[in-house]
Amino acid sequence: MTVRLLTALPLVALVAACSTTPAYETPKLASPAPSTWKAMDGWKAAAPSDHLDRGDWWTLLGDPQLNALAERVKVDNQTIAAAEAAYRQARALVKEQRASLFPSIDLSASGTRSGGGGTSSAPGAGGATSSGDTKRYSASIGASWEPDVWGRIRASIGNANASAQASAADLAAAQLSAQGELATNYLGLRQADIEIALVQATVDGYQRALKITQNRYDAGIAPRSDVLQAQTALANAQSSLEGLTQTRAAYENAIAVLVGQPASGFTIAADPAWTAAVPDIPVGLPSALLERRPDVAAAERRVAAANAQIGVARAAYFPTFTLSGSGSSTASVLGDLFSASANTWSLGLSAAQTLFDAGARKAQVAQSRAAYDAAAANYRQTALTAFQDVENQLTAVRVLERQYALLETASRAADQTEQMLLNQYRAGQVAYTDVVTAQASALSARRDLAAARVSRQTAAVALVQAIGGGWTGL
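User: That's the sequence. What structure does it adopt?
Assistant: Structure tokens below.
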């Protein structure tokens, strides 16, 4: 038996190099990837990689408090914590699969004592003992190993490893998403601060205008309708102020959740004079940024995992081989347990093959191929969505830049018109209706300008997410 086993070992080692897993290639897109973005001339092609450091991209906004909150998101956000735990679980599964490449060894030992009825006393003995006592000691060691003849175990490892890499990309995506959501909510909160200050100043102005109108009415210079219009404008502005207060509170509560804090115990001080930089987007940014997007990387790795699973399914067509060996020793005296006369051993080689399964293995292979096709289609769709996201945000960045310049002009003109008509009303040259209309237009223009500035910053944040991280260091 030993000779036969030793003769079979080289054959097993030879066929162990076989693999049933198809050679993997990254699925090609339905159409070639563009080398430039149509929304921005001058972008050049490059070949970045998902493992590149995305950097602390939120520092592009130049806000120290946002920087501090982003660091807290890294540590305290529970969505990120869950994604990190899933990644550790995936890495542990890789180690578990890799352990299958090595033999498993078992060791057992036992000792028993048994006796029958009756006792006897020996001269000089300290007492009575059972005349039928027997002792038995045994130890055994065994090992088994399933050679990876057809690459099934290696395919399982490849599947687990690709899945772990996809999980790592999911973790990066969770971090990018949480940090992007934080930046967006923070910008929204600061926009609310600015608008609250603008509306509060407008409310103060409307209160003064109401007092002037009331005095003119009391003096018989202005009609009652002027007073009512002034009261209406003031009430509408006060209502807007209450709505902005609610909006700010919602943003603040959302930020609390992102940094892992109860909303009831989390506050951010208002800053009516807040300003933040609008990041400049360099013309030289590369356009081939898909590999840096975590969702695209995760989708591609799941294609690789599905490809490896085809190898696992195809390996079921072939027989499995198992090498086993064991040794044991039994003795009635502990000192004799490891003597040659007490030892026994065995070596063996076994093979198993399914002869008939009514097409189950064929169906499993077909299922694996269909899963691969689905993963490849999902990858292509994710890539197409990535291109769409970048194009949308590039367009938004450029349009908002031009729009902001126009709104600045409109706001200055509206402010001047408001002041001119208010002076003319005091001089009795125009009706109060004209003043109310000018005040509403001026307030709307000021709020639109503030919103446009924050929208430019928000678009920059969205562009960061679309390209999978910041552009510093590229």
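The longest strand covers residues 134-145.
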